[in-house]
Each structure stands twice: as structure tokens, then as C-alpha cells.
Amino acid sequence: MKLDLKRVAQQPGAVLPFAAELDLSGVELNGGRPFCAPVQVRGVVRNRAGAMELSAQLSTVLSLACDRCAKPFEREKTVEYETLLALELANGESDDIVVLNPDGELELDELMREVFLLEMDTKNLCSPDCRGLCPGCGVDLNVEPCRCKREIDPRLAKLAQLLEPEERSE
């Protein structure tokens, strides 16, 4: 979706609302495809005293696997985004300002896709207190206790004997 911003750029106080859907179902992240629903994009471009501002809210429901226990779960994801827009930059490049193409248009889908993907979490947990899987027996520690028999490090065996109750002969 392209936004034609020539009119907004030339008229202080002009406002251009927009809404779109992004299909990211083909995007693979961490070995999975988390986008089970389209990303809803809603926003507005405003010309404030000759400076164009873009404000947008992106939201969807993600289908994820917990990084600790591997259980599938769904989570809502919302991203708020604001930036300045310019027809051209006098000093070259800027990371804070998005430059429109020579026709005064903004490729909205490309920008919003990049914004949303950069805001994806690097770690996904089904709950903040997820205990994960036991590395020894593989049991889900959220459901049941570990079944591993504790092995004592041979270097610490003598110390472990100090913790055992003493047998006294009377």
C-alpha cells in the first residue's frame, strides 16, 4: 500500500488517516511461523508546522512455542510506532527520519513490516514463571517434579557424607 503524501506535505495542519492489513504468514522466525492472523495497521500522518509525523499502531495474535517448555501458546502483540517523514534530507541520511520516494509517496507495507519484525521478542515464554523442562529426564517442571536421581559429584562425596545423619552405636 502506498500513501500519497504530496498534499499533506504542502498543507500545514493536514491529516491523512490510514488502515491496512499485513500478511506475514510466510515469515519464518526461530523455526516457526508465528503469524496466524494478519497484522492490523492503523495510523495517521499529520503535518505539524511543516514537519510530517507518522503515528501507527500495529497489532496481531501470534502463535508461538515457549522457549522453556516448548508448549504452544498464543499471545497478542501490539507495537506503537512514531517517526518523522521528509521529502528529502539536506544533510544526507538519518536513522530517525523516513524519506519518501521522489513522487512523494511512502511504501507503507514495507515500512510497517520492518517495524513489526524488529519489535518481535527474542524470547517467548508461556508465562513469566515458566520452569521449563528438566535437562536430565525431560519432564515438564510446570506439571510435575523432576524424576532424576541426584548424582553426587565424586569430588564432593566426602562433603555429602557430612549431611547424612550419623549412626550411633550405644
How is this structure best described in words?
The structure is a single chain. By secondary structure, the protein is an alpha+beta fold. β4 (51-65) and β5 (72-86) form a beta hairpin. The strands form 2 sheets. A 5-stranded mixed sheet has the order 2-3-4-5-6. A two-stranded antiparallel sheet has the order 1-7. The model has no long low-confidence stretch (mean pLDDT 84). It is 14% helix and 34% strand. The longest helix is centred in the middle third of the chain and has 11 residues, at 108-118.
Layout of strands and helices, then pairs:
Blueprint: E1 2-4, H1 6-10, E2 15-22, E3 39-48, E4 51-65, E5 72-86, E6 97-99, E7 105-107, H2 108-118, H3 157-163
Parallel strand pairs: 5-6
Antiparallel strand pairs: 1-7, 2-3, 3-4, 4-5
Instruction: Count all strands and give the number.
Output: 7
| Gyration radius, in Å | 27 Å
> In percent, how much strand structure appears in the residues?
25-35%
Q: How are the strands ordered across the major sheet?
A: 2-3-4-5-6
Helix count equals 3
Mean pLDDT: 84
* Overall geometric form: elongated
Features:
170 residues, 5-stranded mixed beta sheet, two-stranded antiparallel sheet, 14% helix
Summarize the model shown.
By secondary structure, the protein is α+β, with helices and mostly antiparallel strands. Helices cover 14% and strands 34% of the residues.
